[in-house]
Amino acid sequence: MSEEVLSKSEIFEGISKALKIHENISDYVRERLCCGASDVDSKSEEWIERRRRAFANLKSLMDKYSFTTKLPKNDLGIMTQAIIDYLLRIQLTFAQILVIVDSLRGESFSEIYMDSLTTISARVHEQIVTLGHMVEESEREPESIKADLEHIIKLERQVDEDNIIICRQISVKTAEGESSFSCYMMRKIIAELEHISDYVKECAEILADI
Question: Which of 149, 159, 155 is nearest to 204 (CA)?
């Protein structure tokens, strides 16, 4: 009896389902960071429910990777496993960000951070959405794949540049006596968002080669 393996289309369908969950988590993180901790009533029913859904989405992702038990034992299988590796890293990094945000317990983000923080979190979300589109169009529109890859790479470079700017801003605020705890946590959030940006770019480059 021959071993059942997935086709390329079925593999992309499995990746797409996982990315939809990542998009939902990314959207929560983006909105949570963009409005600032002081503007969010973390005890309101709305945010309690949204936080619950974000963590539930993180847990549900493991089931979305079950299709990997039927990967072909060839280059396609190897490249797919590499993508899953990066998706797992993204999942863990989002979990770290959610825990960090919880630890702030509504502490105010300094106004000086907000433009950069809003921009970085929005760009990371856009990268993930674009990666999802790239997967969906992978077998229909080859030119679209190239355009999506270039866009993701462009966003990754912009995130790197934004990270430099906000780290300088945080250093200034620390020197002025702002809470070292909130400054440290802000640095951590920015660093983790930059990691996600890098992982998304790696996924996109692998997809473009499949």
Answer: 149
Instruction: Dump pLDDT digits (tens) for 89-102.
Output: 999 999 999 888 88
- Determine, yes or no, domain membership for 1: no
pLDDT of residue 138: 78
> Dihedral of CA 67/23/148/89: which sign?
negative
Whether 203 is covered by a domain: the verdict is yes
- The CA distance from 91 to 50, in Å, is 17
Is 2 domain-assigned? no
Q: What is the mean pLDDT of the chain?
A: 84
Query: Residue 18 belongs to a domain with what CATH number?
Result: 1.20.58.220
CA distances 189 to 4, 66, 93, 102, 185, Å, are: 42, 29, 9, 12, 6
Contact 155, 121 (CB under 8 A): no
Q: Are 70 and 5 in contact (CB under 8 A)?
A: yes
Asked whether the beta carbons of 90 and 65 are under 8 A apart, the reply is: no
What is the pTM assigned to this prediction? 0.87
Q: What is d(CA 206, CA 210) in angstroms, rounded to the nearest whole number? A: 7
Average pLDDT score over residue span 101-117: 66
Q: For residue 17, give its domain range.
A: 8-209
The secondary structure of residue 73, as a DSSP letter, is S
As a dihedral over the C-alpha atoms of residue 37, residue 87, residue 199, residue 70, rounded to 10 degrees, the angle is -170
Burial of residue 45 (CB within 10 Å: 0-12, 13-18, 19+) is exposed
17 belongs to a structural domain: yes
Beta strand ranges found along the chain (DSSP E): none
